[in-house]
Amino acid sequence: MELSDLLSQLNAKAFGQSKWIAKCPAHEDRRPSLTISEGDDGRILLHCFAGCGIDAITASLGIEVHELFPKALVGSRPSRSPFTPRDVLKVLSFEATVVLVAARTMRNGKTLSPEDAARLSTAVGRISEGLEVAA
Q: 0.85 exceeded by the pTM?
């Protein structure tokens, strides 16, 4: 799949240099939560900040995960980790911000909504996964 076709299908908007944002097709999105970018090797990178997995996202688009990779990469082994240390740190920083906002909310005597509590749980899980990857 060509990046331009995917951007058109998602009605994506530019979000920085060589990055786009769109509403995630895998869940009811009030605000855009899906980021789209292109890897150095031509892979199309998708990340839903609401927690949707790549399989759910591609299924809702009617495509297979392998279609996000250039033909030269399909069936070949990656030469490095799919995520750079910077990518991991950016995600961990975002998840730490989610934890901070929840902590401040509770410190101010407010109760988290069920949705906010679920998002906090997701953030804690992602931070734990990041620590496991780093070990």
A: no
Quote the longest CA-to-CA distance of the chain: 55
pLDDT tens for each residue of 73-123 = 555 565 556 677 888 888 889 999 999 999 999 999 999 999 999 999 999
Other CB atoms within 10 Å distance of the CB of residue 75: 8
Residues 66, 115: Cα–Cα separation, whole Å: 32
Q: Which CATH superfamily is domain 3-68 in?
A: Zinc finger, CHC2-typedomain (3.90.580.10)
Burial-class residue 46 by CB neighbours within 10 Å (0-12, 13-18, 19+).
buried
Element (H, E) at 106: helix 85-107
